[in-house]
Design goal:
D-Maltodextrin-Binding Protein, domain 2, 2 domains, 3-stranded mixed beta sheet, 8-stranded mixed beta sheet, alpha/beta
């Protein structure tokens, strides 16, 4: 009797485990990987999408390069990158991909001065500070821009990223456009050979170093500056306007004529009210979703998620200090997404 009870007890447990396993297999899951910058927003979006649609999204925040590599190896449903792929990177992919912008971010210039007045900076002045050509806060080029700031006779201590980052790429992309000297050297990239300054890891490292070093200046992402209530400069844009970084001014940076493939650098924007060091962040995926052992249902789920992210999901961006897509960019993103197919059959 005891043996029979034990047998049937084990049988019941095995049946329960089998049932649980089948439920787990029946629950749809998508896998993405890439950019760290949008991770807080993506986490919120994916959680809300799962609640509404019962689709889990496992997003690996491993950096843009890692996301591109995993998409190239076809081990994820979608990748994510803070910068559009170069022509060379596009050619290295096994089949055509598309770029879908999901939101915008910005790089801000922050500093540590007595009283932390809001400074005005022009592109040439920013470049020359980070090139080491302007070395004192009371340099006449700074005082003429900020006559009421009472800038001190204090050395400028430049702080920059020591690790490779999308933030550095966006900032150096901007400087390469506005300064021929910067464009020559050090140029643009995720990691640079900096002419002056001290390095720190991550936005937290740069921000922390600036906060504890009088006379310092550095560059960090919008969310970090706003969350930590740090000083930030108004920057003169291409139209001659001094623009403060904000959700509206960052979104405005994308209110320009966009190329059909949406691979675009928004730094030094032509938009009159646009903040000049703004950037899209992208989801990247294959146009033809019929590859490997993917099913049509998996492909449809991927497209449905991204469709939701660039429409309904945009409501979550401002609360997490990301700029939502302007109407024109969202419409262009939807047009691109409609190209995605499964062996030639449209998925939208």
């Amino acid at each position: 009797m005891k043996v029979n009870k034990l047998f049937w007890g084990l049988a019941a447990l095995l049946a329960l485990a089998s049932c649980s396993g089948n439920q787990s297999k029946g629950t749809q899951e998508l896998i993405g990987a890439g950019a760290t910058f949008p991770y807080p927003l993506y986490s919120k979006m994916f959680d809300e999408y799962n609640k509404a649609n019962g689709v889990r999204i496992n997003y690996q925040s491993i950096g843009s390069g890692g996301g591109i590599k995993q998409l190239q190896n076809k081990t994820v449903d979608f990748g994510a990158s803070d910068a559009p792929l170069s022509d060379e990177e596009m050619k290295s992919m096994p089949s055509p991909i598309i770029h879908i912008p999901t939101c915008l971010g910005a790089v801000m210039i922050t500093y540590n001065l007595d009283g932390n007045p809001q400074l005005k900076l022009t592109p040439d002045v920013i470049a020359d500070i980070f090139l080491g050509k302007i070395t004192k806060w009371n340099d006449k080029r700074l005082t003429s821009l900020n006559p009421s700031a009472n800038l001190p006779n204090l050395a400028i201590s430049v702080v920059h990223r020591s690790d490779g980052s999308g933030t550095t790429y966006v900032f150096s992309d901007y400087l390469s456009k506005v300064s021929s000297d910067w464009n020559t050297k050090p140029g643009k990239g995720k990691a640079l050979d900096w002419p002056v300054g001290i390095g720190a890891k991550g936005n937290e490292g740069v921000g922390g170093m600036v906060k504890q070093t009088p006379g310092s200046i550095g560059y960090v992402e919008l969310a970090y500056v706003m969350q930590n209530k740090m000083a930030s400069a108004m920057i003169q844009n291409k139209s001659g306007e001094f623009i403060e970084a904000s959700i509206p001014s960052i979104s405005a940076a994308a209110a320009v004529t966009l190329p059909e493939d949406l691979r675009v650098s928004l730094t030094n924007t032509d938009a009159k009210d646009g903040y000049p060091i703004s950037s899209f962040t992208y989801i990247i995926l294959y146009v033809n979703q019929s590859y490997g052992d993917r099913t049509k249902e998996q492909a449809k789920a991927t497209v449905s998620l991204i469709d939701w992210m660039i429409t309904t999901g945009q409501q979550y961006a401002p609360g997490l200090i990301y700029a939502p897509l302007p109407k024109e960019a969202a419409e262009a993103a939807l047009s691109q997404l409609k190209k995605v197919n499964f062996g030639g059959t449209p998925l939208m």
